[in-house]
Amino acid sequence: MAQIISGKALSAAIKERATQQAVRLRGQGIVPCLAVILVGDDPASAVYVRGKEKDCAECGIESRMIRMPADTTQDALLAELAQLAADDSVHGILVQLPLPSQIDERAVIEAIPPQKDVDGFTPVNVGRMMIGEECFLPCTPAGCIEMLKSTGLPIAGKKAVVLGRSNIVGKPAAMLLLREDATVTICHSRTEGLAQICAEADILVAAIGKSNFVTGEMIKPGAVVIDVGINRDETGKLCGDVDFAAASEKAAAITPVPGGVGLMTRAMLLVNTIQAAVRQTGAKI
Ligand code: NDP
């Protein structure tokens, strides 16, 4: 049976460190602060935003929640962002996605100053990540790497396969694996021979959003499996992209859903917010 990589335990340790760092910042007169903008009333987004609010409160990070109606215009959202960008007491800014259809998501993301972009979604941060400069790493892929490292199993030189090529998960996960010296293949909806490619992976990161897409036959014995997917199965139960029961018979280590990558994503946002406060103020932690 595979080792279960617990997002619960790992994220608790990260949150504990963030809490201590927030105390040290406050001791220097700096209150780390994250502003979150939620536009509209998408129930899933509301749950995510409440989670972020709770995490911040637990770690001594101030959170400013800005809730805007579903019919908010792009100009109104950009005006709100401009205010937050100019406010020195706000260190991190996050716009909860998806946005209502009248708003151009890219234009909004690009209006976040890179030094406050704690999601790591702005072109400047994406570019810096590509060339290995100081930046904010996107939270989900950064959480995946933390989980991989926690196993103590090597990444360098290993064959890593990433399923999915979205800008927020697949592509940055592949880039971060490359930075760890893995040999990386990215698969997507047009990939031929996907099952065979997966079956050769020492490290498999699944981020496609399809329940139980990755079957036991697609897992190489001894592989490390990181399941990013958050889906509902036919009974309405939360599940990942990987058939957990079958995969855990073959993998060396695997992340569960729930209790896996999702918790790490939340924790990495706290890490980035503390980093943002440190970089903007020059404080020592
Ligand atoms: P997207 O829908 O943006 O991207 C999905 C990717 O999967 C695309 O690149 C798509 O390929 C590929 N794909 C879809 N179907 C297939 C298929 N049959 N075969 C091969 N590739 C396929 O999703 P996200 O990246 O935003 O999210 C992926 C999953 O991760 C979702 O379940 C989401 O809920 C979850 N998630 C979890 C997070 C967490 O914290 N745990 C955070 C963010 C997301 P193509 O590009 O060719 O269309």
Radius of gyration from CA coordinates: 19 Å
Number of helices in the DSSP assignment: 10
Helix content: 40-55%
Q: Which parts are unreliable, with pLDDT below 50 for 5 consecutive residues or more?
A: none
Describe the largest sheet. 6 strands, parallel
Mean pLDDT: 98
Report, as a whole number of angstroms, the end-to-end distance: 40 Å
Coarse shape: globular
One letter per element, helices H and strands E, the order comes to: EHEHEHEHHHEHEHEEEEHEH
Task: Explain what you see.
It is a single chain. The protein has ten helices and eleven strands. With 285 residues, it is of the alpha/beta class. Strand 5, helix 7 (170-179) and strand 6 (183-187) form a beta-alpha-beta unit. Helix 2 (43-59) packs across helix 10 and helix 6 packs across helix 7 (170-179). The site of NADPH dihydro-nicotinamide-adenine-dinucleotide phosphate has 25 residues, from helix 10. NADPH dihydro-nicotinamide-adenine-dinucleotide phosphate (NDP) is lined by residues 140, 163-166, 168-170, 187-191, 194, 207-210, 228-231, 261-262, 265.
Primary descriptors:
alpha/beta, six-stranded parallel beta sheet, binds NADPH dihydro-nicotinamide-adenine-dinucleotide phosphate, 285 residues
Write the layout of secondary structure elements.
Elements (H helix, E strand, L loop, with lengths): L2 E2 L2 H21 L5 E7 L3 H17 L2 E7 L5 H13 L5 E4 L9 H6 L12 H9 L7 H12 L8 E5 L6 H10 L3 E5 L6 H6 L3 E4 L17 E4 L3 E2 L5 E2 L4 H7 L2 E2 L6 H21 L4
Parallel strand pairs: 1-11, 2-3, 2-4, 5-6, 5-7, 7-8, 8-11
Antiparallel strand pairs: 9-10
Helix pairs in contact: 1-10, 2-10, 6-7, 6-10
The structure holds NADPH dihydro-nicotinamide-adenine-dinucleotide phosphate.
